[in-house]
């Protein structure tokens, strides 16, 4: 099935992702663990050997790798970062996989 994307509703995609973020990050970063309201995992985009600096806030979607200063503010930006995608491509993939009319 081919989709023609002329305008992506980033807010709608993020709104669907945010309540599902605990299960999404468990899929995206399966080596991670809950630490309070955060998911703490190894950063797969670099040679990270010790969990602790890469954290995702499961309540608001903010994420950061404090070792590299990479950071973002929502599930789309996290997915884009992990998969080396543009924000638009990440939003399209998430919308398709979650059944969101983006």
TrEMBL record:
GO molecular function, one term: DNA binding
Cited SUPFAM superfamilies: Zinc beta-ribbon (SSF57783)
GO biological process: DNA replication
Protein name per its UniProtKB record: DNA primase
Organism field: Loktanella salsilacus
């Amino acid at each position: 099935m081919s989709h023609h994307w002329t305008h992506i509703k980033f807010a709608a995609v993020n709104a669907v992702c945010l309540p599902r973020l605990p299960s999404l990050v468990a899929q995206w970063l399966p080596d991670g663990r809950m630490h309070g309201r955060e998911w703490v995992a190894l950063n797969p985009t670099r040679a990270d050997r010790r969990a602790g600096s890469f954290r995702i806030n499961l309540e608001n979607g903010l994420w950061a790798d404090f070792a590299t200063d990479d950071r973002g503010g929502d599930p789309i930006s996290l997915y884009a970062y992990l998969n080396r995608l543009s924000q638009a491509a990440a939003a399209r993939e998430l919308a398709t996989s979650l059944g969101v009319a983006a």
